[in-house]
Design a protein that fits this description.
alpha+beta, Peroxisomal Thiolase, Chain A, domain 1, four-stranded mixed beta sheet, 10 helices, binds acetyl coenzyme *A
Length: about 325
């Protein structure tokens, strides 16, 4: 049997770092009121990074990918599949993955984007796993990269304080022993409206609202339920129990959703990897960013059992259980 394993991880945050107070000041200039206390208490977020003008998702992705390849001990020539999870691509087309392929100098193989908003990395990892298992590819870069600062409405305090930019990447490769153990993906298209950026480009113009809209409470309620379901599904598939989980790395949107998810699984909070305080919600980048930080800080070690979980616009959600 052919399995897949994560050979290396990497991430990148653009250098511009904004505190809650920086945002409070920026919004005050437009007469919009918020506070560090409100943001910390409701979300757990203290800082987020924003990409400079002209820096695109592919630029963040390339940095993260280079770190992941270095950790995996491989070069661009070893990569034969690139999957980029993003909702903030450089262009309408071609895919950000093709742009990343060129910038990295990867000589060939498939390259495409996956669009599942904040579930994008879990979706992308599952797709890459399937392509490697069936023999279509041998070694993949799976990247989550976002510049959500570009689609934020800084006149809407209920959303603009929540998001940040960044990228995370893994090298996923064929293996004789299992790394990825189980995965589940789901979507509920009836919930399109609760979290969307509904504008589009047509006739050379932007049609409709090109900025992010969210019904936070609706998202919150759905997220907690589906994250528990997804966790139970992958554990059942792999014949494991919650006690087997060493680290829970959920999508980093809101510390309250994350803690509630851990509690429902009866996992001690020490097993929860949280970077939302320093990164904000980086959508498809949040899970691989958190994974890479946990690996580099020595939390996640080789052999640990890790549960990755995504949830976001669509509505989409999913989970991957793996032995690192
Ligand atoms: N600063 C100050 N006050 C604010 C702000 C702000 N930035 N934003 C909203 N408020 C006010 C509201 O206007 C409201 O005031 P009112 O009571 O006078 O009407 C009050 O705070 C409470 O607002 P709620 O929306 O009820 O606040 P809630 O506790 O639900 O928190 C939040 C809002 C943080 C958005 C929460 O609902 C949430 O986290 N939802 C999930 C969001 C999420 O996880 N999204 C991402 C998942 S999917 C993805 O990542 C794409």
């Amino acid at each position: 049997t052919r399995y897949t394993r994560i050979a290396g991880t990497g991430s990148h945050l653009p250098p511009l770092r904004l505190s809650n107070q920086d945002l409070v000041d920026r919004l005050a200039a437009d007469g919009i009121e918020t506070s560090d206390d409100w943001i910390v208490e409701r979300t757990g977020i203290r800082f987020r990074h924003f990409a400079a003008d002209g820096v695109n998702a592919s630029d963040l992705a390339v940095h993260a990918a280079r770190h992941a390849m270095e950790a995996a001990g491989c070069t661009p020539a070893d990569i034969d599949l690139i999957v980029v999870a993003t909702s903030t691509p450089d262009m309408v087309f071609p895919s950000t993955a093709c742009i990343v392929q060129r910038k990295l100098g990867v000589p060939g193989g498939a390259a495409f984007d996956v669009q599942a908003v904040c579930s994008g990395f879990v979706y992308g990892l599952t797709v890459a796993d399937a392509l490697i298992r069936t023999g279509t590819a041998r070694r993949a870069l799976v990247i989550g990269a976002e510049v959500f600062s570009r689609i934020l409405d800084f006149k809407d305090r209920t959303t603009c304080v929540l998001f940040g930019d960044g990228a995370g990447a893994v090298v996923l490769e064929a293996s004789d022993t299992p790394g990825l153990l189980a995965s589940t993906l789901d979507a509920d298209g009836r919930q399109v409206e609760i979290l969307c950026t509904p504008g589009t480009v047509a006739g050379g113009q932007v049609l409709g609202q090109p900025l992010l809209r969210m019904d936070g409470q609706a998202v919150f309620k759905l997220a907690v339920g589906v994250l528990e379901d997804a966790a139970r599904k992958v554990l059942a598939q792999a014949g494991r129990t919650p006690e087997d989980i060493d680290w829970l790395i959920p999508h980093q949107a809101n510390i309250r959703i994350m803690q509630m998810t851990a509690r429902k699984m009866r996992l001690p909070v020490e097993k929860l990897v949280a970077t939302v305080d320093r990164h904000g919600n980086t959508s498809a980048a949040s899970v691989p960013l958190a994974l890479d930080e946990a690996v580099r800080s020595g939390q996640v070690r080789r052999g640990d059992t890790v549960l990755l979980e995504g949830v976001g616009g669509g509505f989409t959600w999913g989970a991957v259980l793996l032995d690192f």
